[in-house]
Design a protein that fits this description.
Oligomer: single chain
Radius of gyration: 20 Å
Largest sheet: none
Structural class: mainly alpha
Order of helices and strands: HHHHHHHHH
Number of domains: 2
Distance between the termini: 48 Å
């Protein structure tokens, strides 16, 4: 294995350890009381190593937010969101899978009161992708599309916030339920264009 590959693996392992330590320390003390020393101790590193990766705890949280948004962006940007082709169940199933991989991080954001900002970033990506796929010269229809995009984006992410706080429903059931709700809304805006739900 080359030195660069070893170095990259070490960097990834250290970053993962720091993220896991942040989540553990937050569970123990609450985010406002967590210190860099706490994170370094739980991650098995020293403070100098922490600062080699992050400027502060706020910087760590900001970079976590960017990473999560980056993981969802390819799914959003490669999904056909137009009424004729949008497969809600595939989309929400994949969306749920991506979210589930970072469930502890979402819980951290939720309990720290930071989830709305993260979800606003994701919602912006959803809306921009949706509007880019509906290239309509009619200003009235553009307004309708924008309204629907706002509704769908806010509803999806609002429901996810609720699910994070109340994860009694299995992820697959959550995805199916939200897929059905979205499909119903699509039918209202674009009647006759969509298949039956599940």
């Amino acid at each position: 294995m080359s030195e660069n590959k070893r170095e990259n693996k070490r960097v990834l392992r250290t970053r993962a350890s720091i993220r896991e330590a942040l989540i553990k320390a937050t569970r123990e003390k609450g985010l406002t009381r967590v210190t860099v020393t706490d994170i370094a101790r739980l991650a098995g590193i020293n403070r100098k190593t922490f600062y080699a990766y992050y400027d502060s705890i706020d910087d760590l949280i900001h970079k976590l937010e960017l990473e999560i948004a980056a993981k969802l962006r390819p799914l959003i940007q490669t999904t056909n969101l137009t009424g004729d082709f949008f497969d809600t169940f595939h989309f929400f199933g994949q969306f749920g899978t991506v979210l589930n991989a970072d469930f502890d991080t979402y819980r951290l954001f939720y309990h720290a009161g930071l989830l709305p900002h993260l979800l606003e970033t994701i919602k912006t990506d959803l809306i921009e992708t949706f509007l880019a796929q509906y290239d309509d010269d009619d200003p009235k229809m553009h307004t309708v599309y924008r309204l629907f995009a706002e509704y769908a984006g806010a509803g999806l992410l609002g429901s996810f916030t609720w699910w994070i706080a109340n994860p009694d429903i299995p992820l697959t059931e959550y995805a199916t339920t939200i897929g059905n709700v979205t499909l119903s809304a699509f039918r209202a805006v674009y009647p006759g264009q969509l298949p039956a739900g599940r």
